[in-house]
Amino acid sequence: MKDCIIIFQKNAELGKVKTRLARSIGNKEAFDAYQRLVNYTHKVASKNPAQKILFFSNFLEQDLSKYPEGYRFELQSGNDLGEKMKNAFDQLFKEKFDRILIIGTDCAELTPELLSEAFDILDTQEVVIGPAHDGGYYLIGMKRFIPGLFEGIPWSTAEVSSLSMNYLERNFISYSKLPTLFDVDFEEDWERFKDKI
To answer: In which band, very low, low, confident or very high, does the pLDDT at 8 lie, cut at 50, 70 and 90?
Structure first.
């Protein structure tokens, strides 16, 4: 099996990351929180043997040596989150990867075991979704390119995961869910997890 984990990561710029969190704790603390979440995500992902491909939001960072060995680096392309994810999946399925997961850097509850479980699910299902408590998802994976999953979804709303699952059910595409986890978006989220990562 040729497996791949896509990591979607915003470039770390003060005042431009974790903006909802920054409203209550300030830009500097939100920036530091973001850096810790990013580091945690890479620590978790690096324990999985799949190829890791980090897609930056705006530009390729100059110093890539801080990332784990074996990473590949790309730039997101598209107008909104859905189009950017769709383009990333399309590109990598064309490179003949068999099972592809995508994660962000917002989930402090992600574990290496969950990533392994997601790949295992793709042995028997076409799609795997890790729903987040805010209505989005912290992970989605598939074993064939399904562009419709990224079309017509109101991104950054509480309907993202439910509408995605509705699409799969309407189109008779098999899927399984991982446990529902928390993303870190607000101060109460960060307070819950900051001592654990």
So the answer is: very high
pLDDT in tens, 109-141: 999 999 999 999 999 999 999 999 999 999 999
Distance CA 24, CA 188 (A): 10
Tokens of 19: 């903006």
Three-state DSSP string of 66-77: CCCCCCEEEECC
Cβ partners under 8 Å of residue 44, min gap 6: 110, 111, 112, 115
Against a cut of 0.70, is the pTM above it? yes
Q: How far are the Cα atoms of 19, 40, 41, 103 from residue 45, in angstroms, in the given order? A: 24, 9, 6, 9
- Return the amino acid letter for 179: P
**Two tokens, residue 66:** 């801080």
